[in-house]
Structure formats: structure tokens, C-alpha cells
Specification:
alpha/beta; Quinone Oxidoreductase, Chain A, domain 1; Rossmann fold; 2 domains; seven-stranded mixed beta sheet; six-stranded parallel beta sheet; 10 helices; about 25% helix; binds NADP nicotinamide-adenine-dinucleotide phosphate
């Protein structure tokens, strides 16, 4: 079978499509024939580790997992002797973040725990847009203590035009919030089309200096100090950051809880991420099923052009999800 592989860290060009033997599922594993996969920033962060200290966990000198890609949707082709949840022919989707495999392949073979059924009527490519980014959006809009957003809350999505941001904008709107999206000038119209009430171009406006206050800020790619972000939080407000380079991530991780002790604003890194948590998957499926949230697909690439797909996202061109179809 054909599979995208990486043997070293580097830009998208280190990925090559190779040929490996098709696995036979053992124990509780299932073999899934991939019909669609989608690209996430996390795929690129895994190629050129960001934040840099994640190398401690994913391989110091070279990646431990040669596979590439997290979001996958396909059809169960074979099941291991201990697998009980799925049968051959079932349409499933999942996030491979906790599983040692890569979604950019003709087949994936991992524990059945990685998957949930795709509901009737949902296409493979729509299902493939959801597992990583939509779940991160749901969990970034909910604190560890369960507190979340509600009608009338002023929510700012910093990085509204990437993978997670469009889901965060639409989910916050669905919950009745007044939503401000932050993005580059070229994507202002895209973010407006998602339903954002206000859109700020980060090259001309620094939202931490406008004097406006937000009840919730979800940040997908930290670009401000915590002190600056705190200024933009209303009393009782929450700031949750998801990603970025090492120093803002470490600051959010270590300094965030300290700053949160003084005053009534909460700031920090999303440390309660639970990949593809079943309850959150159900929430997302409900929102997509009712048409309240509409995943946006930017482009489709065949597996043979996986480097082009990764490069397109890496260079910031995508307006919505990029799909890879074996
Ligand atoms: N905390 C956790 O547990 C956890 C778990 C999994 C993944 N993650 C991380 O979560 C993040 C998810 O992000 P994503 O996939 O949505 O990333 P993405 O698709 O790369 O989007 C990044 C966003 O940041 C914006 N941006 C770029 N430069 C900016 C600037 N100077 N000021 C403001 N915004 C700027 C981009 O806007 P333009 O495109 O318009 O320039 C885009 O909207 C990844 O970093 C991933 O590694 C975290």
C-alpha cells in the first residue's frame, strides 16, 4: 500500500510517498481503507517540531512515528480478533494523535478506540475535516472546570482563518456569542463569511490595544504576551491558547496559572485536550448535522501530491481544510 512517510525532521519536502506491506489487524486493531484525510497545523508542527521541546516526546533526533497525518475517514476493511465495536464495511472517522500511524496513506491500522462511526449522509471528506480541529475548538471554548461560553458573551478568536479558528467562530456564534475573528488581510472576507460579527486584520490592529474587552479569547497561534492579553479580558474573562512557539507556550503553561491567581481573569494553555473525546464528537456531529456548523473545504489533493498539500497549508494559503484523497 502507498503511505506518506517522514524519516527526519524538516519542511514538507522531507515527506515522501513510499510503498509498505498492507498490515493485518491484530488484537483490537482495525484496518481502515482511507477515503479522505485532512491536513492540520499539528502535522506541520510534527515535521518541524514546534514548540521545539516536543522533540522530547516525539523523538529527539528523528521522528519516532514515520507516519504523517492525524485526521482520517474511511471504511473498515478488516478487524482484529478482539475488536468488537466495528465490522467490515463500517464508515468510520478518527484522530490518530494518540496512535502510532499516519492518516496520509491508503490504509491505517490502529486500535478501534481511535474511531467513531460516520453518521449516515455525511461524506468522507466532511468527516475528515472534523476530528482534530473541531474538537480542539470545542475544548478551547470550555475550561477544565467545565465553564464555557454563552449567549451575549464577547468571544475573540485569534487565528480565525486556520484549521481550528473557523470551527471556533461558528461554534461560538451557534452559542449566541458576539464573535470577533482575527486574521491576515487576505482572509478577512473568509472569516466574515463564517459568520463573525467583527473581523480584525492583525497586520493593522492589535486587539490587545483597542480598549475592547472580551469574555473569552481562544488563541490558535500565540502572538501576544500574557500581560497584553490580560488587558483585553473583561473581568471574569478567560484566555485559552492552543499553539505557538516554545516561549509563549511555556509562558502560558507556567505563568498563566500564576497570573490567574491574582484578580478574576483566567489565562493559560489548553492542557485538558482530550483527542476525539466521544461527548465532544457527538456535539460536533450534532452541529454539523443540523447545518449550524459548516466545515469549509479549501482544496483536495491526491496522496501522491501530499507535499503540495502540506506546503499549501504551511505557507498560509488555505482558507478552510485541505483534503488528501488516496
Ligand atoms: N494545546 C493542545 O493540547 C493542542 C493539541 C493539539 C494541537 N494543538 C495546536 O493547536 C494549534 C491549532 O492551530 P491551527 O491548526 O488552527 O493553526 P493554523 O491553521 O496554522 O492557523 C493559525 C492561525 O494563526 C493566524 N496567524 C498567523 N500569524 C498571526 C499573527 N501574527 N497574529 C495573529 N494571528 C496570526 C493565521 O492567520 P492567517 O492564516 O490569516 O495568517 C491562522 O488563522 C496548532 O498549533 C496545534 O499544534 C494544541
Amino acid at each position: 500500500m502507498k503511505v506518506a512517510l517522514k524519516d527526519r525532521y524538516g519542511p514538507p519536502e522531507v515527506v515522501a510517498v513510499g510503498e509498505v506491506e498492507r498490515p493485518i489487524p491484530e488484537a483490537n486493531r482495525v484496518l481502515v481503507r482511507v477515503r479522505a484525510a485532512s491536513v492540520n497545523r499539528a502535522d506541520l508542527d510534527g515535521l518541524l517540531p514546534r514548540p521545539s521541546f516536543v522533540r522530547l516526546f516525539i523523538g529527539l533526533r528523528r521522528p519516532r512515528n514515520r507516519g504523517v497525518g492525524l485526521d482520517v475517514a474511511g471504511i473498515v476493511e478488516a478487524v482484529g480478533p478482539e475488536a468488537t465495536r466495528f465490522k467490515v464495511g463500517d464508515p468510520v472517522f478518527g484522530d490518530l494523535s494518540l496512535f502510532h500511524d499516519g492518516a496520509f496513506a491508503e490504509y491505517v491500522c490502529v486500535s478501534e478506540a481511535a474511531f467513531q462511526p460516520i453518521p449516515a449522509g455525511m461524506s468522507f471528506e466532511v468527516a475528515a475535516t472534523l476530528p482534530h480541529s473541531a474538537i480542539l475548538a470545542v475544548q478551547g471554548l470550555r475550561r477544565r472546570d467545565g465553564r464555557t461560553i454563552g449567549p451575549g458573551d464577547r468571544v475573540l478568536v485569534d487565528g480565525a482563518s486556520g484549521n481550528v479558528g473557523p470551527f471556533a467562530v461558528q461554534i461560538a456564534k451557534a452559542r449566541g456569542a458576539e464573535v470577533t475573528g482575527v486574521c491576515s488581510p487576505a482572509k478577512v472576507d473568509f472569516v466574515r463569511s463564517l459568520g463573525a460579527d467583527h473581523v480584525l486584520d492583525y497586520t493593522t490592529v492589535d486587539y490587545t490595544r483597542t480598549g475592547k474587552r472580551y469574555d473569552w479569547i481562544i488563541d490558535t497561534d500565540s502572538h501576544h504576551s500574557l500581560i497584553a492579553v490580560r488587558r483585553a479580558l473583561a473581568p471574569g474573562g478567560t484566555y485559552v491558547t492552543l499553539g505557538g512557539t516554545a516561549s509563549p507556550i511555556l509562558a502560558a503553561l507556567l505563568l498563566g496559572p500564576l497570573l490567574s491567581r491574582f484578580g478574576n481573569r483566567r489565562l493559560g494553555l489548553l492542557t485538558w485536550w482530550a483527542p476525539f473525546r466521544a461527548e465532544d464528537v457527538a456535539t460536533v456531529l450534532e452541529l454539523v448535522g443540523t447545518g449550524t456548523v459548516r466545515p469549509v473545504i479549501d482544496r483536495r489533493y491526491p496522496l501522491a501530491e501530499v507535499v503540495g498539500a502540506l506546503r499549501w497549508v504551511n505557507d498560509g494559503h488555505a482558507r478552510g481544510k485541505v483534503i488528501i484523497e488516496p
